[in-house]
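Have a think about this chain, tokens included, and walk me through the fold.
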Amino acid sequence: MSKTEATGATDAGDQQDLGEAGAQLSTAPKEEAPSAVGGPTLGVVGWIRWFWRQLTSMRVALILLFLLSLGAVPGSLIPQTSADELKVTQFKAAHPTLSPIYDKLQLFDVYSSVWFSAIYILLFVSLIGCIVPRTWQFVGQLRGRPPGAPGRLTRLPAYTTWRTDSEPEQVREAALALLKSRRFRAHTVGDAVAAEKGYLREVGNLLFHIALIVMLVAFAWGQLLKSEGGKLIVEGGGFSNTLTQYDDFKSGSQFSTHDLEPFGFTLDSFTGTYEKAGPQRGTARTFEAAVTYFEAGKKEKKAVIRVNEPLKVGDSKVYLIAHGYAPVVTVKDGRGAVVYRGAVPLLPIDNNITSTGAIKVMDGYRDKNGKKQQLGFQAFFVPTFAGAGKGSMFSQFPALDFPVMALTGYTGDLKVDGGLPQNVYQLDKTRMKQFTDKDGNKLAQRLLPGETMTLPDGAGSITFEKEIKEWASFTVTQQPGDGLALAGALAAIAGLSASLFIQRRRVWVRAVRGDDGTTVVEMAGLGRSESAKLPEELADLAVTLHAKAPTAPEPAEPAEAERPGNK
């Protein structure tokens, strides 16, 4: 028996000569030039038809997918209005030349821009327009049978032949049984057995593109119905999932406040530990928030929220985002009455949690003459003090090893009664006057826990209490399309793997009676693309079939005396 006698890809001319046997190995539509559909001679209809065929081709779908990925790049590099308006404002202030250009190109709102939406919609249409006809075509192929053998099997890329004494019908029956046992779809057509295998390649191809549509739908669904809000909570404080409780809140255009999950939680404690020495000194080792949460109609439960381990309540997830300190202060007026007492959250400005903020006394304070006034204090806090004798202070470690707070006091109008929103961590000093000491110097003082700064002229005092609470910042999100997007991503990976590693191929076995009375067996294979596995598989099939229909012995040589011409 001979080995495979022909390898390599069959050229386009040969594919056409194979007729039906070489057709429908793929459901990919044939590419046609504009002239093939009439070109300018067909007018508008012809060009529309050609444009539709181009739009629904796999090549254009891949180009659009690449453009969509490329369009998402500026959304990752440039601050987005939907994510952080403050960063966008800061970027515009720092780049006055680029900002107008970015505004015109909608680079601050990439995912809602006209050009990104156009790519998104075109990709959606392209995938649907490609998948629907290919799916129906593939269903038709599954309902049909492998085509009969071409007239000349020698033209196929993998081919072998031998002669046997077995009857043609026996060879075909053995070949049919063999191919079916190897999970080929096989049947007998005339003098040959036709078989096909690898349909999962096209299933994977279609699954991959359907999964892309699922992911696009999930993305759109998530953008329309998503919600995301932030909340800073001091230890002992609570939160209820209502719109008024959020420090900031963003949502999709189709989101309703009625979609908010009915739940809430209390921050029982925050625990943070840090590396004490070595190159990673100051790196967080423990970073977790212990909470007590409740759902409507259910009992309270305990939970611990860690980084990348959110609390899940219904369709909502509560993520731990940040942490800081909230020193407890007590403010008294000139008569000794307490006008303010509470923990004041301060915002970190470095990795060692050096923090700044403002203390605002808006109501209840009166000066020594009984006149209503407002007080404001600029606070600068370090959990582990350093910088003594250098004219400055900073933190050298994030833990509360040596806490110090510097305060600067102001009196006047905080401008909080005008109805305009104001940053709670900053003082508006336009109508405020800084306290001065008896020598006329501006009053500022560093305090240790338990120490008090006395305000001049009987204006009162502020005490840095020994209790220092911690705060944690949380983000509460609802992303209804996450599960669908994950399912689409997994399906896309499975489909892509099938389309890459499974080869769709056809095998034919022809057995006919030769002129010398022996049976001529021909085996040939054809794949969608050139692959070394096809000749190997054909050789394996041929060896197995050859065992059942072995090569016929060569006819014996005539004796010397019996040869013609010998006497």
Notes: Residues 114-143 form the longest helix (30 residues). The chain is about 30% helix and 30% strand. The CA atoms of residues 558 and 564 lie 10 Å apart.
